[in-house]
Amino acid sequence: MEKRRFLGVCLLVAVLVLRAAVLGRGDDGGRLLDPGKLEMFVDELPDMPRMRGYGVAEGGKLVAGNLTIGMYETMWKFHRDLPATRVFAYGTSKETATVPGPTIEAMQGVPTYVTWTNHLPPRHFLPWDPTLTAAAPGSGHSGSDGHSLAWFTAGFAATGPRFSSPAAYEYPNQQPPGNLWYHDHAMGLTRVNILAGLLGAYRVASPAEEAALNLPSGEAFDRNLVLFDRDFLADGSLFMNRTGNNPSVHPQWQPEYFGAVVVANGKAWPYLRVRRRRYRLRILNASNARFFRLSLSGGLRFVHVASDSVYLARPVPTRAFLLAPSEIADVVVDFAESGNATAIVLRSDAPAPYPGDPGDKAETVPVMKFVIDDDDDALSTEPDTSSVPARLTSPSQYAKPDAREAVLTRRIAMYEYTKEGTDEPTHLYLNARSYMDPVTETPREGTSELWDVINLTDDNHPLHVHLALFVALEQRSLRDVDDLKECMMARGSGGGGADACGLERHLAGGRKHVVPKQERGWKNVFKVRPGTVTRLLVRFRPLSPPDSRRFPFDVAAGPGYVYHCHILDHEDNEMMRPMKIVR
Prior knowledge:
Layout (H helix, E strand, L loop, with lengths): L3 E2 L44 E3 L1 E3 L5 E15 L8 E7 L11 E5 L4 E7 L50 E3 L6 E6 L6 H7 L2 E7 L1 H4 L11 E9 L30 E4 L2 E2 L2 E4 L3 E8 L6 E5 L5 E6 L2 E9 L1 E4 L4 E7 L8 E6 L16 E8 L33 E13 L6 E6 L16 E9 L5 E5 L3 E9 L3 H11 L11 H5 L4 E2 L11 E4 L3 E9 L20 E5 L2 H5 L3 E4 L4
């Protein structure tokens, strides 16, 4: 059987492409649930099922793992007092499928083969908008990346124009140890399929590298936290508004989805019993559009050890931090620093949408509670021998960012288009082009580029580039951004038209924003502030060893890769562009 190679290196997501359903529409009938009716902190935080992405041969040698993970329509309990909810979920069977799906635990350098099987019904239970460029039946496919037009329905009855064959997907896992996630990526349907539950965490471990760090380890003390927001009807159904903000243009699409209920590992406002010791928390924001600005009650601090999929050079302590959709913060929290407190609440005070209007004060909302229990025999009483080292990676371990290695500079402009008379958004483009327009970005494998990302919108856009890692070098505010936007939109130009519209003049005297210390390493998602130019050093080559120039597969094969805003509602409405790697 031919194997379809998917890159673990540098990808935030192990992208699964499918078309769950394209014929049905959600029914908004019923009464919207008042979230105040649900008591907080009554459900224990689940640890999602863990699937080992490798095998162990005789003598303890690690060998490639073979997994089969299906997509099922099933029922899931989000809260003790809420009726079971209809969801789409990943699992080894309908009975064991969970939201989020199982955590795949891979080993660095050991391939994981996954056969993804689609058992979803022909009709979606959530509303979808047929006026968007969407997954539609058609007639390969990059050997190392998921593609939004490579979806498939149950039994491969219909497939996308970029789908190749129903074979196992290969994840080489040759990148440095770190955190990723997998989710549906079907064109025009990503927001509804993830909202329905098709997402899960993916870890790559390297015991040889990580043991010396002595960070908290083991299932009890090293936990994934997958956060998202949802709305429900009183009968437990997921609620997604089926009326668009511009119904004459898009009958269902809304610019952003926000829910009033915060969910962690599939439970609304759960609790976790902990000891007074260190815990490692790998926190993923899997929301459609909500940003979380996280803090802990009692002034307890986070110590960041990694950002997205890569370890930081040194740990960074914070009292609060901002997490955009698809970002991952890998932190250590020491509950021994909680004094006499018996409970610590993880909370968020980020406005929605983010950053909101100037002067707006966001409400602080709970996310989950840590219950500090010194007496429960069910919790481990072993002494805490973990620590956080002064240095996490050596200077020679990973490539050091150096802007001088860039072979060219690209301009990437972010646009939002509105309906005349209402000023309501209709769609969003990168470089004034739709997703279906021909490829304009053709980086060469083994090189690095500077990308100047010009955000001409009022939103903060978490930019994600498939295949590549990047470092944010600087972020500067534009002056008279409306004047620049008017000029560039009148020219119908991409980022290349910025110079003709006086980009440097608009940057002169603009505020320079400090990149937070915990975000100064290699990342695969970065928050592009509204009205700014963000300079990224984008690396189209492996991170380790530092002198590597080639990926362990043919990156030039197939239709290529994508880069996009990871606000799912924006991504689904064309804020995504194709990218072709050349050799």
